[in-house]
């Protein structure tokens, strides 16, 4: 990483990215279209914008084997499920509850990395994980007092977090030998196909929506996807992955503030307390994970097909 080659202070694009991804929940709430349609067009419009940057890399697809092809399809399917579950949760619970629970993603990634790769973590990081989970329980407990619908939304958000963790773990493995931009394009394409099949199977209309909805689909692609996740991917050329990971702590804060301003959503004392505990636990967890990574010497890996930043999803 070479911070000096960046012409502007790192915190400027980082803040832009945090604000951009915070708007994702607001756009989903504003839309009356089914979440499967929102997710499909969000990624489809992103694919169209990415096309000029990836078509020259298409030749690398001829070099992948059947196992890698299967993993790419699986990663794309998990990404589609993530959008279905998480965007669906926003229709049932508050933006704050959904995004705070989604921010538990590093915890599930750590658990999955231990199961799949036997990657170990420090006791301090485990303590942070447990604190964050305690906060998540407090959020759910607070939602019990509101309605059963809110609890269903919390569960959907947790399911969305689990599947996106699986998606990230597959990406971690594939990106050792796969161009990052082409990887993103491929899994987005698979996710769009999965959404299309889902909508056709359930007879969910994919056309005939008013102009307002098409505007929201486009906003979802441009703001939280391009100016959020794609911007974070670009920043990985200049800062560490741990720095980008810390940005997830900013999303629930930004999304909650925007939900208060644009949607009039408010939180109970239990939810505020649980949210604060989740963020504190995650901060402690990520800080100790970063310290452990600094002490660990990475094993040699096969050279990638071409250079590119490692992709982070959410």
Question: What does the model show?
Answer:
The chain has one domain (3-295). Helix content is 72%, strand content 0%. The chain contains twelve helices and no strands. The longest helix is centred in the middle third of the chain and has 27 residues, at 148-174. It starts with 10 loop residues before the first helix and ends in a 19-residue tail after the last helix. The relative contact order is 0.22.
In one word, what is the shape?
A: globular
SSE string, helices as H and strands as E:
HHHHHHHHHHHH
Q: Give the structural class.
A: mainly alpha
Number of distinct beta strands: 0
Radius of gyration from the CA trace?
A: 19 Å
* Count of the separate structural domains: 1
Any descriptors?
72% helix
Describe what is shown at a glance.
The chain is 72% helix and 0% strand. By secondary structure, the protein is mainly alpha-helical. It has one domain (3-295).
Task: Break the fold down into its secondary structure elements and pairings.
Layout lengths: L10 H20 L4 H20 L11 H24 L5 H8 L2 H13 L5 H22 L3 H27 L5 H22 L9 H25 L5 H6 L3 H13 L6 H27 L19
Helix pairs in contact: 1-9, 1-11, 2-3, 2-8, 2-9, 3-7, 3-8, 4-7, 4-11, 4-12, 5-7, 6-12
């Amino acid at each position: 990483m070479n911070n000096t080659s960046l012409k502007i202070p790192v915190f400027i694009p980082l803040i832009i990215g945090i604000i951009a991804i915070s708007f994702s929940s607001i756009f989903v709430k504003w839309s009356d279209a089914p979440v499967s349609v929102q997710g499909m067009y969000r990624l489809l419009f992103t694919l169209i914008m990415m096309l000029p940057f990836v078509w020259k890399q298409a030749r690398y697809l001829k070099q992948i084997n059947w196992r890698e092809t299967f993993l790419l399809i699986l990663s794309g399917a998990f990404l589609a499920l993530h959008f279905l579950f998480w965007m669906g949760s926003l229709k049932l619970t508050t933006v704050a509850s959904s995004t705070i629970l989604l921010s538990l993603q590093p915890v599930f990634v750590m658990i999955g990395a231990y199961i799949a790769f036997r990657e170990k973590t420090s006791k301090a990081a485990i303590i942070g994980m447990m604190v964050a989970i305690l906060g998540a329980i407090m959020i759910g407990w607070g939602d019990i007092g509101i309605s059963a619908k809110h609890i269903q939304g919390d569960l959907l958000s947790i399911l969305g977090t689990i599947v996106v963790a699986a998606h990230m773990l597959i990406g971690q493995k594939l990106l050792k030998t796969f161009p990052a931009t082409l990887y993103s394009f491929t899994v987005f394409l698979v996710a769009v196909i999965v959404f299309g099949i889902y909508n056709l199977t359930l007879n969910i209309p994919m056309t005939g929506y008013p102009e307002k909805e098409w505007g929201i689909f486009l906003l979802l692609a441009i703001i939280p996807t391009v100016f959020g996740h794609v911007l974070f991917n670009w920043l990985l050329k200049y800062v560490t992955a741990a720095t980008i990971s810390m940005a997830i702590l900013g999303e629930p804060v930004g999304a909650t503030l925007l939900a208060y301003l644009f949607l009039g959503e408010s939180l109970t004392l239990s939810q505020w307390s649980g949210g604060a505990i989740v963020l504190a636990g995650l901060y402690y967890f990520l800080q100790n994970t970063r310290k452990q990574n600094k002490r660990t010497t990475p094993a040699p890996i096969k050279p990638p097909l071409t250079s590119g930043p490692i992709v982070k999803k959410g």
